[in-house]
């Protein structure tokens, strides 16, 4: 009997690893802000990140239903819906077309979009047809009952490196500063969580990022093992982080890329509810 159990152990382990990549986790988070306009109390945002042209969970239909049931006011797509290693435009288009009919969608690039310039251009054109807003180092005001918040979206950090290798960091910071509005509550969509200290210095209130894939392999009480751009034992991999007066939400991502194995790190859909924090007398 023990020999049979040992023989089955690799199969059981392999099955567990597969489930990590297909068993969707929904993370609901409620965030309170003094600066949030009253009319945006209970404002709901669904975050879709790092799909990597992968089928989400065991069924895309289940994933889409979870977003529909949440009934978000907006959906933010924080990069890497494409995949430079195993790209499938049909999967990307199918997901985007389903998201577009649920709520207004806002998209920023990840590093994989920038690796695929031809496909990225096709993606931008498709998003225009779907009325998905492409945030190309731009901002816009979201208004409810005469009150507004400032939504900012920047291209992946590699965009700035490609444009000007010598001054890319300064140009990245300058872009963020120019798009920030001191008179509004500011939400930033930016693929890279490791730039959080920059976002906090500029005083962005809320930031949505991805890229880290949850650290790929997670060890209890230690956290993620590796993340692109952060290396081993990365600092920003999943969950919420607070620095100064800024809050960063990092999605574990909904797909996999060149490294397809997740351990103790399920794919994740983030559903955020913003609340107006009332001052105590």
Using brief descriptors, characterize the structure shown:
Purple Acid Phosphatase, chain A, domain 2; 6-stranded mixed beta sheet; 27% strand; disordered N terminus
Commentary on this structure:
- The strands form four sheets. The chain has a six-stranded mixed β-sheet with strand order 1-16-2-3-4-5, covered by helices on one side. Strands 6-7-8-9-15-14 form a six-stranded mixed β-sheet.
- The protein is globular.
- 31% of the residues lie in helices and 27% in strands.
- It contains eight helices and 16 strands.
- It has one domain (3-276): Purple Acid Phosphatase, chain A, domain 2 (4-Layer Sandwich).
- Keywords: Hydrolase, Metal-binding.
- Residues 43-214 form the Calcineurin-like phosphoesterase domain.
- GO terms for molecular function: metal ion binding; UDP-2,3-diacylglucosamine hydrolase activity.
């Amino acid at each position: 009997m023990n020999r049979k159990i040992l023989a089955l152990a690799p199969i059981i382990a392999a099955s567990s690893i597969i489930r990590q990549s297909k068993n969707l986790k929904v993370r609901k988070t409620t965030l309170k802000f003094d600066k949030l306009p009253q009319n945006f109390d209970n404002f709901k945002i669904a975050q879709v990140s790092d799909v990597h042209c992968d089928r989400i969970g065991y069924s895309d239909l289940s994933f889409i239903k979870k977003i529909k049931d949440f009934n978000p006011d907006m959906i933010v797509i924080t990069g890497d819906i494409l995949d430079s290693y195993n790209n499938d435009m049909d999967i990307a288009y199918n997901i985007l077309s389903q998201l577009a009919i649920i709520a207004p969608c806002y998209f920023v690039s990840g590093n994989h979009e920038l690796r695929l310039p031809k496909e990225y251009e096709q993606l931008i054109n498709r998003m225009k047809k779907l009325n998905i807003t492409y945030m190309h180092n731009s901002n816009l005001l979201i208004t409810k009952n005469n009150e507004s918040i400032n939504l900012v979206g920047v291209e992946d950090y590699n965009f700035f490196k490609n444009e000007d290798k010598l001054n890319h960091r300064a140009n990245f910071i300058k872009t963020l500063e120019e798009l920030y509005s001191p008179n509004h509550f500011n939400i930033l969509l930016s693929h890279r969580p490791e730039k959080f200290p920059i976002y906090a210095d500029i005083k962005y209130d809320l930031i949505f990022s991805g890229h880290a894939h949850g650290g790929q392999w997670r060890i209890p009480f230690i956290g993620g093992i590796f993340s692109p751009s952060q290396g081993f034992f990365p600092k920003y991999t999943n969950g919420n982080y607070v620095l100064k007066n800024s809050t960063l939400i990092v999605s574990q991502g909904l797909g996999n890329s060149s490294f397809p194995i997740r351990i103790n790190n399920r794919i994740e859909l983030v559903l955020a509810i913003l609340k107006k924090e009332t001052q105590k007398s």
